[in-house]
Amino acid sequence: MPKGGKKGGHKGRMRTYTSPEEIDAQMKEEKERKKKEEEEGAAVNDNQSEDKLTGSGSEDSDDEGSEKRKGVEGLIEIENPNRVAQKAKKVTDIELEGPKQLSRREREEIEKQKAKERYMKMHLAGKTDQAKADLARLAIIKKQREEAARKKEEERKAKEATQAAAAATKGLHTLSLK
């Protein structure tokens, strides 16, 4: 048995279509309604310009009345003290050269880079613990290499001396035989 029972669902109903005449009538009604709204808006604008010329009336209430409101807002008066009307900013009003507020991450990133640069300067000057350890290690290695080079030189000289002595004794041997 199907889920909906024997009643049947919405799928089997007859479909109704809107006739072209009804569509045309709806379109005309919408156009007429828009024309009325535009005429009312023009009348409100005329009243505002007259008020501005005479300098009477509160401008705040006129500005609220001229704004187009969406949905139910046009019908209901709302007094919300937390609501701030957004004003369009002009390009000339925007300050590009003023002090720019950085986010926390950007500030931390900049501080990190500056700290790294300071550390590298101190490291190159040999003032950090790591730099001192590196320099001490390099001095030890330098001494070891100097000692190894000196030893090699002494061994080479000793070898040359033994070879020279051997050659001298060989030369004496040949002389004594002659």
Percentage beta strand: under 5%
Structural class: mainly alpha
Number of helices: 4
Element-by-element helix/strand order: HHHH
Radius of gyration: 50 Å
Distance between the amino and carboxyl termini: 135 Å
The backbone outline, from C-alpha atoms, is elongated
Rounded mean pLDDT is 79
Which spans have pLDDT < 50 for at least 5 consecutive residues?
56-65
Sheet with the most strands, sense and barrel status: none
Subunit organisation of the chains? single chain
Number of strands: 0
Helix content: 55-70%
Protein name: 28 kDa heat- and acid-stable phosphoprotein-like
InterPro entries: Casein_kinase_sb_PP28, HAP28
Domain Casein kinase substrate phosphoprotein PP28: 80-157
Pfam families: PP28
Task: Give a verbal description of the structure.
With 178 residues, this protein is an all-alpha fold. It is 64% helix and 0% strand. The protein contains four helices and no strands. α1 (20-54) runs antiparallel to α2 (59-66). It starts with 19 loop residues before the first helix and ends with a helix.
Q: What is this structure, in a nutshell?
A:
It comes from Cyprinus carpio. Helices cover 64% and strands 0% of the residues. It is mainly α and 178 residues long.
List the helices and strands and how they pair.
Layout: H1 20-54, H2 59-66, H3 104-125, H4 129-177
Note the main attributes of this structure.
single chain; 178 residues; mainly alpha; elongated
